[in-house]
UniProtKB/TrEMBL annotation:
Keywords: Disulfide bond, Extracellular matrix, Glycoprotein, Hyaluronic acid, Immunoglobulin domain, Repeat, Secreted, Signal. InterPro entries: C-type_lectin-like/link_sf, CTDL_fold, Hyaluronan_bind_Proteoglycan, Ig-like_dom, Ig-like_dom_sf, Ig-like_fold, Ig_sub, Ig_V-set. It comes from the Eukaryota. Belongs to the HAPLN family. Stabilizes the aggregates of proteoglycan monomers with hyaluronic acid in the extracellular cartilage matrix. Residues 39-156 form the Ig-like domain. GO terms for molecular function: hyaluronic acid binding. GO terms for biological process: cell adhesion; central nervous system development; glial cell differentiation; positive regulation of neuroblast proliferation; skeletal system development. This is Hyaluronan and proteoglycan link protein 1. It is found in: Secreted, Extracellular space, Extracellular matrix. It comes from Monopterus albus (Swamp eel). Residues 1-15 form the signal peptide. The keyword Transmembrane does not apply. One of its GO terms (cellular component) is synapse.
Length: 353
């Protein structure tokens, strides 16, 4: 074993009175310097970011590197936490010490250590949910030594702007969380909105993001969207009051387990008829998030306006053509018509679970 050099320097104000006049801030201070042969334990994530999708299994990498001069590990503790979207707190995910293992909250029964070697602290998460998106911290504690690494879990998916039947700018932050959830989605993060903007999202209504800020993406600067002379970018209203301020929301969703489809039916339907027709087909009326996921991730294309669960009428176009969104691939929105109008078809969703 290589001896570890520990050098302690104590400067007491009495013994170092001339130092004290030279460096008054050192007076009464006691400085302890500890020199060692570098850190004896370090923790690394071989990849800082892992990309997966809803429903898949993922491994968050975390490798322990221990100095060989260290005595064989007695009790190494491995702890995984998740950073909240505002990065202010951490949520427990998993803890392992010796043979004791514990998983927490929504991760219960879905997480375990990969354990390919004693130095492997990688975490496996099965059946990924939208809420699993975010940053995770791997922390290893070995006696007095301690190391951490951070890994981001990114999900393939789609961001969409949303407001409910109530109309524009009617959601406080908590309403916004519910609104996305009701459409099979979560509130998007700023990173997800940024990616969507890079892919061409241009939307002139401000919406909540998961960190409690309110922003919107602009590709073509124009007067009603922050000004004609601004550069393209994401306009940021900053952090807003989560209870009192009301905006739209940007939702995020990923792949689903199920089948999204347009119901073939002999006549046009009212909203209630659409709900019943889907049920009769062994399905449910589809949610807005499911239409966006089918359109963006599976290339779904249908030029028929149909009812969705929130009472809106939309249709997804992947191949722009005359009379069907001629200029761009998009989910077209016909608003929230009178639910009694017998004018539209129905989009249904059959879950595979
Ligand atoms: C995920 O892992 C579980 C258990 O280890 C397995 O049963 C399941 O088939 C896996 N799912 C996928 C999508 O690979």
């Amino acid at each position: 074993m290589i001896p570890v050099l520990i050098c302690v320097l104590i400067s007491l104000s009495a013994a170092a009175s001339d130092l004290g006049t030279l460096y008054p801030e050192l007076e009464h201070s006691r400085t302890i310097y500890i020199t060692e042969n570098g850190p004896q334990l370090s923790v690394v994530a071989e990849q800082p970011k892992v990309v997966s999708r809803r429903g898949a299994n993922v491994t968050l990498p975390c490798k322990i590197q221990r100095d060989q001069s260290l005595a064989p590990s007695r009790r190494m503790r491995i702890k995984w936490t998740k950073l909240t979207s505002d990065y202010l707190t951490e949520v427990d995910v998993f803890v392992a010490m010796d043979y004791h293992k514990r998983s927490y909250g929504s991760f219960h029964g879905r997480v375990h250590l990969q354990g390919s070697s004693p130095m492997d602290a990688s975490l496996v998460i099965t059946d990924i949910t939208l809420e699993d998106y975010g940053r995770y911290k791997c922390e290893v504690i070995d006696g007095l030594e301690d190391g951490t690494a951070v890994v981001s879990l990114d999900l393939e998916g789609v961001v969409f702007p949303y407001f409910p039947r109530l109309g524009r700018y009617n959601l406080n932050f908590y309403d916004a969380e519910r609104a996305c959830h009701n459409q099979d989605a979560i509130v998007a993060s700023i990173d997800q909105l940024y990616d969507a903007w890079q892919e061409g999202m241009d939307w002139c209504n401000a919406g909540w993001l998961s960190d409690g800020s309110v922003q919107y993406p602009v590709i073509t600067p124009r007067e009603p969207c922050g000004g004609k002379n601004m550069v393209p970018g994401i306009r940021n209203y900053g952090q807003r009051d989560k209870d009192r301020n009301h905006y739209d929301v940007f939702c995020f969703t990923s792949y689903y387990k199920g089948r999204f489809y347009y119901l073939i039916h002999p006549s046009k339907l009212t909203y209630d008829e659409a709900v019943r027709a889907c049920q009769k087909d062994g399905a449910q009326i589809a949610k807005v998030g499911q239409m966006y996921a089918a359109w963006k991730l599976l290339g779904f294309d249908r030029c028929d306006a149909g009812w969705l669960a929130d009472g809106s009428v939309r249709y997804p176009i992947s191949n722009p053509r005359r009379r069907c969104s001629p200029t761009e691939a998009a989910v077209r929105f016909n608003g929230f018509p009178d639910k009694k109008h017998k004018l539209y078809g129905a989009y249904c969703f059959k879950s595979l679970n």
